[in-house]
Design a protein that fits this description.
The structure holds two protein chains of two kinds. Chain A is α/β, with parallel strands linked by helices. Chain A contains five helices and five strands. Chain B has a five-stranded antiparallel sheet. Chain B has a five-stranded mixed sheet with strand order 11-13-14-16-15, with helices on one face. Chain B is rod-shaped. The chains are: A alpha/beta, B alpha+beta.
Chain lengths: ~120, ~575
């Protein structure tokens, strides 16, 4: 099981990856959509944890790009923002739509859920 | 009846419910609008009415006046004929005598006394008769006085009769102290000489004729001579030979009538005619007021007609003006209510956007703090070095808990903002109520207000407008909090009724609403908290919001016990909303 974390907040995404690895979940992280595209060139991921609001390319757009390369990948959106459309579309498109800040155990639970689906 | 009374005494006349603020700046001054509407329409209706009435009044008055004058003039004319013929008869009699008798017969006293006797029998009122020769000497005389041999040649009348062939004297008293007049005619003898036959006539007959005239209107018929001296008694305290107050009118061959203002008796109608070949002027004086009596009645009728006309016009004008201004007023009130509602929801959505912005900005650093402190804790737990250090773990937990609390707040804010503009979507009633209560949680805590939420388990998620529901509950809870004193209770309960509806009850144990206010609380601008910043719109907006989502709002209240708002919502609002739209096009 390998996760890809994409969030423009490096402090957040790096720490989260470290915490997940402490719990035995392998997670790579990048801070932009471009980085994410590079990562999926070389590796397979089971689940992508995407920030919805990112500069230039946002999470929802990125999801489409990733899905082209890796069909069947699961997605969880993670956001600090909550515009109405994002919420509606996000909760429909992705497995989960989670709000920052998030409890680590909740997150792991959702990840397992998503992968188990 | 009430409705009729309201038509004539609507709210706007007493200033209406005027609020403060920019929305009211463009409101009409209704009572001024009403006044000018009434004035303009009344003027344009009443002025022509007045003009026509004035015109009619004048025309009628003139007609009546000229009718009065001509009536008087007719009477004068008739009377003149009577008087003329009275005198002409006597003159003709004298004419007959001189033609029927020779001069020699006339100067025979026996014959003359027979003639006098005949005249008396035929005419009456003849007191004497005499024959005067060309030298002015009275040759024969039959009568009560010894006037035989008297010479008249120096007297004016003698000259006149010589000149004109006839003479009729003014009325005078003479020796007998009886008013009488003298008629004399001259007769030319074949020899070229002439003689005069002279007779005295009592004026009693004449007076009688005048007094018996049916004049009416306190009329008064009399004869004056050319100097204005009364020749016959006038009906009112004027004796014969007195000079009348009325100036002698100008000579006219026709009968004349005019108005005359008597200083004592007021307005009079005066008709007169000069009686030809005599010094007499016949005069008839009538009281104008008496004659105009029929006019006074007509005038009164015209005035009554005018008053009724004005009354009807005014009632109509005031009724219409009130009706139209009231409609403007109601439309304005409705407009302001809608503007308020728009303003209110605008305000709410700006607050929502602001909250969302703040929440978002805070969420990201919050997430970082969360992860960092989480990592610290992880390190503690996954390595043995700090695992035993209870204090450090405690500190990290404290940070964690605070972050979680902040997270809850920002999530609440976001959730509130997110649903602000939403239309119909599945709604979890319990969640909505909890969210709204969440905002008031702190106040409830400080004021020790106990809130209890009791939602029946069989209420499913139902489609409704979440934003509107939030607004409704926020308004109702705010009201309840305002009514509650510290330590009161707010109970919110919801049950399912009739399978397709939900009944939500919001009950407080606050001050309650007096019965007289209860009917008005859903009216816009009705507020008992005006002094403390209430707009009077909260419940009005709540009411229309509930209507918009297909529900109803009812209220029951007991003063000092509490107030209970009951909301009934449809479970399937979509259907009802469509119906609602069709039913309420006026919004």
């Amino acid at each position: 099981m390998r996760l890809l974390l994409v969030d423009d907040e490096e402090e957040f995404v790096a720490t989260l990856a470290e915490r997940l690895s402490l719990r035995g979940i392998v997670a790579d992280w990048v801070t932009s959509a471009k980085g994410a595209e590079k990562m999926i060139e070389t590796r397979h991921y089971d689940l992508a944890l995407l920030d919805v609001k990112m500069p230039r390319v946002g999470g929802r757009e990125l999801k489409k790009i990733i899905e082209k390369k890796l069909p069947g990948i699961k997605t969880i959106y993670l956001t600090g923002h909550g515009s109405a459309e994002d919420y509606q579309a996000g909760s429909a498109e992705a497995e989960y739509y989670l709000m920052k800040p998030i409890n680590i155990s909740d997150l792991i639970e959702k990840i397992n859920d998503a992968l188990g689906k | 009846m009430n409705k009729l009374l309201k038509l004539f005494s609507p709210n706007f006349l007493w200033g209406g419910k005027q609020g403060k603020g920019p929305l009211y700046r463009h409101m009409f001054n209704y009572s001024r609008l009403w006044r000018s509407a009434v004035m303009l329409t009344a003027l344009s209706a009443i002025l022509p009415l007045l003009a026509i009435t004035w015109f009619d009044y004048n025309v009628t008055q003139k007609a009546v006046e000229s009718e009065t004058l001509s009536r008087t003039s007719r009477t004068v004319s008739n009377t003149k004929r009577t008087i003329s013929s009275f005198l002409a008869e006597r003159k003709s009699a004298l004419d007959f005598i001189v033609h029927d008798n020779l001069y020699e017969e006339l100067i025979d006293p026996v014959r003359l006394s027979v003639i006098l006797e005949s005249l008396r029998k035929s005419f009456g009122g003849i007191s004497d008769i005499g024959v005067i020769d060309a030298s002015g000497q009275q040759i024969a005389y039959i009568g009560p006085y010894l006037l035989e041999g008297k010479n008249y040649s120096g007297q004016d009348w003698f000259k006149e009769v010589v000149e004109r062939g006839i003479y009729i004297s003014d009325v005078f008293l003479g020796f007998r102290n009886e008013p009488h007049l003298v008629i004399a005619i001259s007769y030319e003898l074949p020899a070229g000489s002439f003689y005069i036959l002279r007779t005295s006539i009592d004026t009693d007959r004449l007076n009688e004729q005048l007094l018996n005239l049916e004049l009416g209107a306190q009329g008064n018929a009399f004869i004056i001579n050319s100097k204005g001296v009364l020749q016959t008694p006038a009906r009112h305290h004027k004796k014969v030979f007195e000079k009348i107050v009325i100036p002698v009118p100008e000579y006219s061959s026709k009968t004349e009538a005019f108005q005359y203002n008597d200083p004592d008796e007021g307005s009079q109608i005066l008709g007169y005619a000069y009686i030809p070949d005599t010094p007499f002027i016949l005069m008839i004086v009538k009281n104008k007021n008496e004659m105009m009596k029929s006019w006074h009645k007509t005038r009164f009728e015209i005035l009554i007609f005018l008053s009724i006309g004005i009354l009807i016009v005014m009632v109509g004008v005031i009724g219409f003006a009130t009706f139209f201004v009231n409609n403007i007023y109601i439309a304005d009130q409705r407009r302001i209510k809608i503007l308020h509602q728009v303003e209110y929801s605008n305000k709410l959505s700006s607050i929502g956007r602001l909250a969302a912005g703040v929440a978002h900005e805070i969420n990201n650093p919050l997430a970082i703090i969360n992860e960092k402190s989480g990592l610290i804790k992880d390190i503690f737990q996954f390595t043995d070095i700090y695992a035993k250090d209870e204090k450090l773990i405690g500190l990290v937990d404290a940070i964690h808990n605070s972050v979680a609390r902040c997270g809850t707040i920002t999530k609440q804010l976001l959730s509130f903002a997110r649903h602000m503009d939403f239309s119909f979507q599945p709604v979890d009633l319990k969640k909505v109520i909890r969210e709204v209560i969440g905002f008031l949680g702190k106040e409830a805590e400080y004021r020790n207000i106990k809130t209890s939420i009791n939602i029946s388990q069989d209420i499913p998620e139902f489609k409704s407008d979440r934003g509107k529901l939030q607004q409704v509950f926020l308004n109702l809870f705010n009201n309840a909090f305002a009514a509650l004193s510290d330590g009161g209770n707010l109970d919110i309960s919801a049950i399912r009724i009739r399978n397709d509806r939900i009944r939500i009850t919001v009950a407080d144990t606050g001050c309650g609403i007096p019965e007289k206010d209860l009917k008005k609380i859903f009216e816009p601008f009705f507020s008992t908290r005006t002094t403390v910043g209430g707009t009077g719109l909260g419940l009005s907006i709540t009411y229309s919001l509930i209507q918009e989502i297909g529900g109803t709002l009812e209220v029951t209240s007991t003063v000092d016990v509490g107030t209970r708002f009951i909301i009934t919502l449809p479970l399937n609002a979509k259907m009802i909303k469509e119906k609602n739209n069709a039913l309420t096009p006026r919004g």
